[in-house]
Specification:
Elements (H helix, E strand, L loop, with lengths): L1 H5 L4 H17 L4 H13 L1 H7 L2 H11 L10 H12 L11 H4 L11 H33 L4 H25 L17 H19 L7
Helix pairs in contact: 2-9, 6-8, 8-9, 9-10
């Protein structure tokens, strides 16, 4: 499936599948040596992956390494996102008072760059509170995985937790320049039917696994 998704091309979704696979392999008890070997194979395949990327995807990676090489082109979204998040400072400018947001400096601010709106309007405090909410959600998912009645339930819950962590890390990271720009949405926050449907189904699966969990004696 990863190869087929890469041919779309949709590097972001392919990265999500790889992250889920690695997380589930780790939870399944695969040796770290084997996981390290898979990581090494991934690095060895980097030149091939670079050759199959589209021009705009290569530009995104180059801009990630040096945002100043194309500030009005490929680097525009990243620079504007940094300005928006930084201008929010500690407490933010207030809800519906973000200038970068209202003046439409940020492209795709309702989907991929939704965190820039939160950072500008609610500041550092709002961003941290949102991150804490995600941490609680992931902790609950891992708790369900730990108490799952069988191995399948454990892997399902662990895979969902891995998917959520990866989505949050990449989406928030790309708005502040810690990750390359991709089309990965912020779970439960970004606008989009497929993203909300995916997280809704994932939550339903978690609740199903949790309903049949084993009892833990404390």
């Amino acid at each position: 499936p990863v190869v087929l998704i890469l041919r779309q091309p949709d590097v972001g979704s392919a990265m999500v599948l790889v992250a889920i696979m690695l997380g589930m392999l780790f939870l399944a008890g695969v040796r770290l040596r084997l996981l390290a070997g898979l990581g090494g194979l991934g690095l060895m395949a980097a030149p091939f992956l670079w050759s199959v990327l589209r021009d705009y995807q290569r530009q995104r990676l180059l801009v990630f390494l040096d945002p100043g090489i194309d500030p009005l082109g490929a680097g525009y979204a990243l620079n504007q996102a940094k300005i928006a998040v930084g201008s929010g400072q500690v407490w933010g400018k207030g809800v519906f008072a973000g200038t970068q947001n209202l003046l439409r400096f940020i492209p795709e601010q309702h989907t991929d760059f939704i965190f820039t709106v939160i950072g500008e309007e609610m500041g550092f405090v709002g961003g941290v509170l949102l991150l804490l909410l995600f941490m609680v959600w992931v902790w609950r998912a891992l708790r369900i995985a730990y108490t799952a009645a069988d191995r399948l339930g454990m892997l399902i819950a662990g895979g969902i937790a891995t998917m959520t962590v990866f989505h949050v890390f990449v989406n928030m990271g790309m708005t502040v320049g810690l990750m390359p720009i991709t089309g990965i949405p912020l779970p439960f926050i970004s606008y989009g039917g497929s993203s909300l449907l995916t997280m809704g189904v994932a939550t339903g699966l978690l609740l199903g696994v949790g309903a049949r969990r084993r009892k833990i004696l404390l």
